[in-house]
Amino acid sequence: MFVITFNQNNLVQDGQNNKLIFKFPNSVNLSGKSIAVTSISLFYSWFNITTAQQNNNFSYTWTSGSTTTTYTINIPDGLYQISDINNLIQFTCINNNTYYIDNTGNYIYPFEMILNVNRYAVEIVSYLIPTTLPTGYSIPSGFVGFPSTTQNSVITIPSNFNAIVGYTAGFTTNSNVSNAYTPPNPNVNNNYVSKLSNGTLAYLSNIAPQVQPNNNVLLSLSNINNPYSQPSSIIYSVNPSVGIGEQIFEVPPNYMWNKLIDGTYSELRLTLLGTNLQPLIINDPNMTILLAIKDKDEYGGK
Known about the structure:
With 302 residues, the protein is mainly beta. It has helices at 82-95, 161-165; strands at residues 2-7, 19-29, 33-43, 57-64, 67-74, 100-101, 107-108, 111-116, 121-126, 128-129, 151-152, 155-157, 171-172, 193-195, 201-204, 217-221, 234-238, 247-250, 258-259, 264-273, 287-295. A hairpin with a 5-residue loop joins strand 6 (100-101) and strand 7.
């Protein structure tokens, strides 16, 4: 058995850190050979929300007088939890002056997103916006104004971002004008929505949220002879069972041997893919992947 090493010295320098090339010192005949992963070390550093994936924005409305403005919340490329997205909602509302301040100094935002662990769902909560400032409350400098009729902000969840939070593409919340909205009876085909007498609306996602759509890294190696798989090049899958930014280190309990296509090789190409089988952009190039090559009759193999 022979071991070959892929590390950051083997990376294709395109800024994506997902393609590695191992060049043999001389061309080698790998007929009758099999290959397997022996260890993997890399950092959990790929983003779940990016411009490239087009899952990086959604919108909300605020009405001042009778004029309704739609504000887009753009999420910078990054690795986010639902709580991080909610923090960005608050940051954007502050920048847009679409908030006011209660009598104890707390900022009142038009809506929020929270993780409902018990229901395995993301909850969108929107609040009834009054027509005048409540007694004892205050407004920030540059405040955009209150609506002429009480209503809730309308939150719109576009395609791609919808998978992150578990809503159907194009989902919108209700404006609840004059607090007159009556939620439908809940059923399995609708997002469950509840309403309080003060006009607060709470929605539950009805699809399992895919907060990290690429929760596995698939290792794809060139020249694999596997007629039972599509694509045939996948030789291993890594699950990041560590926290964001921490090191993933994995040693398979048993080697899963994959036959190589008979032939003479000058190099092997390894690509790191997401669950959508597209190359995964890895931010930290610090990685080491060891592969072992054996003859078909080595260790009793066939």
